[in-house]
Amino acid sequence: MNELPLSVVICTYNRADLIGLALEDLTKQTLETSQFEIIVIDNNSKDNTSEVVRIFTEKYPHIHYFFEGKPGRSIARNRGWREAKGTFVAYLDDDIRVDPQWAMAMLGALRQQPQPLAVGGLVEPWYAETPPKWFIPEFELRSWGEKAGYIPAHRAPFGFAGGNMGIARSLLEKYKGFQEELGGGGDHMPRMGEETDLFFRIYKDHQAEADRIFWFEPAARIQHWTPARNWQVPYRMQRSHASGAARAWMMGVKPFSVGYWRVMAFGVKSTFRFMQALISSKNLRKTEWIKYRQTLAYLKGFSDESIQHGKDGLK
């Protein structure tokens, strides 16, 4: 029996109102159902997620449901690849809409030769309601250009957005999947960035060919649910701070080290760009101000975690 080419894993928590839309889109893929399976990992949902998914599992034999009672997105992601039968494993979020060509594009990119170590797809915002004018698509867009290709070495260390990515199952086995100290989900809120950490570990082992390890495939396109909270400024600052803290944790950066100042230098550049934007564009002043504040929150999170790492090292 030939091995299944692709397993699509969706980890979910209390998204009964949205996951059905994602599954409905996945049943309309142009890729033959004999070429892929869909695995839903229910991470201890308290709503009727299981009932919604059961509608699909009873109708479509290639859709499978698993309950994971231990909370945490990394835990759910790891359960997903361990249950997977595919040569490749692709991860999707539970609050998305999926283009009909997505599975074919993702599998085609993963299979190409020379074979990339991971593939990321295009993520566009799917607004719950009309956002304010300052909230431009760039805030939620995850793209590396209009054309397919390897992402450049200087952007490679931290890979792709975790809600639309693919990787060989053998590589997940080699790296033991996602670090369970990372990855929020449900009421379980450790540091974020479990997929970023995985990509960073892969990158560190392949720096010599860093410009030819991660492939961006814009044809693997999804739209990601973007509720009104995403343009609430406190939420954006909180998310940026958490992102900076996670980056410092996974890099193991200590305060005032070379790595620390390299990241802080980014803040100086951002300040310069912000001042330029204020001068050149009155219409984008609030947009640029929020982006700049996000950078400051990111750097604060990075610095806070670095200092904590330094303190822990003295214990």
Question: How would you sum up this structure, described in words?
Answer:
The protein is of the alpha/beta class and about 325 residues long. The protein has 2 domains: about 5-230, Spore Coat Polysaccharide Biosynthesis Protein SpsA, Chain A (Alpha-Beta Complex), CATH 3.90.550.10; about 235-315. Helices cover about 40% and strands about 20% of the residues. The protein contains 9 helices and 9 strands. Strands 1, 2, 3, 4, 5, 6, 7, 8 and 9 form a 9-stranded mixed beta sheet that branches. It is globular. The N and C termini lie far apart (about 55 Å).
Tag the structure with descriptive keywords.
single chain, Spore Coat Polysaccharide Biosynthesis Protein SpsA, Chain A, alpha/beta, 315 residues, globular
Task: State the major sheet.
Answer: 9 strands, mixed
CA distance, first residue to last residue: 55 Å
- Give the number of helices: 9
Give the DSSP E fraction (strand runs of 2 or more residues): 15-25%
- CATH superfamily of the largest domain, by name, is Spore Coat Polysaccharide Biosynthesis Protein SpsA, Chain A
Radius of gyration: 20 Å
- Rounded average pLDDT: 90
CATH class placement of the largest domain: Alpha Beta
Percent helix: 40-55%
Quickly count the domains: 2
Low-confidence stretches: none
Q: What would you call the shape?
A: globular
Q: Structural class of the secondary structure composition?
A: alpha/beta
